[in-house]
Design goal:
single chain; mainly alpha
């Protein structure tokens, strides 16, 4: 079952559940894993907003610190080949990676949702044209498409984020279209049109508010996927240029020292993995609460 099928509902079904049942499902889905995931994400956001609170080292200057020091109380993740504190670079890299992920998800959310809503409400030839465009996007591997776009736009954090965001448009479009089709067949939408409502007034007052919850849940899941894709671009050298710290670039810089300084790749990689898993856990919790 695909990620879109998990979120999509069958058109014409899915009447709202009582508020008490929705609250009980929400409480039941918030377990220890969700709480831990929330703490992990809070730490990552705190790193991005207030990095100086977590480390006193310079992320780009190792000074006189010896290179390739093993992890210790002074250097939690050790030092890299130039003596820079690896933990400090991971902390300061959070702002680059999280900002890029948010921009990527924002691009996919806005563009994809707009395409899906228009296709699902207008139907006809416009629906066919837009969905064939989405099928083309889905037929191209995400990493290949993002690499092609970032090569055209040029290297950099924002360009990499836009490239990753384009790869997410298709998923948002398919999900929002399925929700729009479901809502568009409802009696209250027909009543809104019957009372003289225009297409855009019905779209923004009725269809969009009633179809946005699954899309927002998907957006949370996509943050983790975006972090992973942006880190991959950074690892391949198509993301943030050095010496600016970014998680994929940090892992790439340490790959030549795996045999002698494993911590330069393993520990930053563990951080990325933990944050990606945390976003997926939070996204799944939101999906269950809104389904």
């Amino acid at each position: 079952m695909s990620l879109i099928d998990t979120f999509a509902r069958t058109p014409g079904t899915g009447s709202p559940r009582p508020a008490s049942k929705r609250r009980s499902r929400t409480r039941a889905s918030i377990g220890p894993a969700t709480i831990i995931s929330g703490l992990v994400l809070l730490i990552a956001v705190a790193w991005a907003l207030f990095p100086a609170l977590f480390t006193h080292h310079d992320p780009n200057d190792g000074g006189t610190t010896p290179a390739l020091l093993a992890p210790s109380l002074d250097h939690w993740f050790g030092t890299d080949q130039t003596g820079r504190d690896a933990f400090t670079r991971v902390v300061y890299g959070a702002s680059q990676s999280l900002l890029a992920a948010l921009v990527a998800v924002g691009v996919g959310l806005v563009v994809g949702t707009a395409i899906g809503l228009i296709a699902g409400t207008r139907r006809g030839w416009l629906d066919d044209v837009l969905m064939r465009f989405i099928d083309v996007l889905l037929s191209i591997p995400a990493i290949l498409l993002s690499l092609s776009i970032v090569i055209v736009l040029g290297f950099g954090t924002i360009n990499a984020a836009i490239a990753v965001g384009v790869t997410a448009i298709a998923q948002f479009a398919r999900l929002s279209r399925s929700e729009a089709v479901r809502i568009n067949t409802s009696d209250f939408v027909a009543a809104a049109y019957g009372s003289g409502g225009t297409f855009f007034s019905v779209l923004f007052r009725h269809i969009l508010p009633n179809s946005i919850s699954p899309v927002l849940s998907l957006a949370v899941l996509q943050i983790g996927s975006a972090i992973l894709q942006i880190s991959t671009l950074g690892f391949l050298g198509y993301g943030t240029p050095p010496p600016t710290p970014e998680w994929g670039l940090i892992i790439a810089e340490g790959r030549n020292f795996v045999a002698t300084a494993w911590w330069l790749t393993v520990l930053p990689g563990f951080v990325v993995m933990a944050i990606v898993l945390a976003t997926h856990q939070i996204g799944n919790t939101l999906r269950k609460a809104t389904s």
